[in-house]
Design goal:
alpha+beta; two-stranded antiparallel sheet; 2 helices; 4 strands; about 30% helix
């Protein structure tokens, strides 16, 4: 189920297992960070961004919204 994939994505982020993101992302994924207007083309670029980002952070999924074929997560 796609919801399981989204949850696994955030678990990898939370645990700092960035290379594991390759298991749950399409190779041609486009990731948009709306708070900074950054855009990453391809999972390799997004994974590298996470590996290079300074410091350690965590992801706490608060809500998952599902509508038709879209899933939106609210994450702290």
């Amino acid at each position: 189920m796609i919801t399981d994939t989204v949850i696994k994505f955030w678990e990898h982020i939370d645990k700092g297992q960035f290379d594991m993101l390759a298991d749950v992302m399409a190779s041609d994924a486009v990731v948009i960070l709306p708070n900074t207007n950054e855009v990453f083309y391809g999972r390799k670029n997004y994974i590298q961004f996470n590996k290079d980002y300074p410091g350690r952070w965590y992801a706490d999924v608060k809500k998952i919204f599902i509508a038709d074929d879209e899933i939106v997560t609210a994450v702290y």
